[in-house]
Fold Circadian clock protein kinase KaiC.
Amino acid sequence: MSESSQETKSNGRKLIGVQKIRTMIEGFDDISHGGMPIARTTLVSGTSGTGKTLFAVQFLYNGITYFDEPGIFVTFEESPTDIIKNASSFGWDLQQFIDEGKLFILDASPDPEGQDIVGNFDLSALIERIQYAIRKYKARRVSIDSVTAVFQQYEAAGVVRREIFRLVARLKQVGAKLLCI
């Protein structure tokens, strides 16, 4: 089982800590005292080249490999082909998982030709696509790469922030373990 909980004693009472999901990422589960919190969104941040995308891919890869938990990777920047190629340099065969229906890469990157923003910005269509993929693939883990890219595409930061919160709330309702970078 991939979930763990931490129990401590305080004044003779048994306290149960935050339930965690193991990532099986070397060293991470140790320093995070068991992995990532369940039923919460985890945000991984860092500058370009620090390994955020690698972390997100490995979170999904290990979930499939060690716990048979299908996953969804939502990309706003890199193409699915590039993600698959980059992962293969670590010996991770994402294409096999895609072919087996254990992994789905949802390409949410903007049109390279550019587009004019008309009307109000919202993530309703994306939320529906993610929820559909979660149901179809019975996904337990979702990685979104990257929230920063969404903010860079649109000028109204407050509106984007609201939509990200709405996305997180909807995914929490379906029980997905969400990693945002």
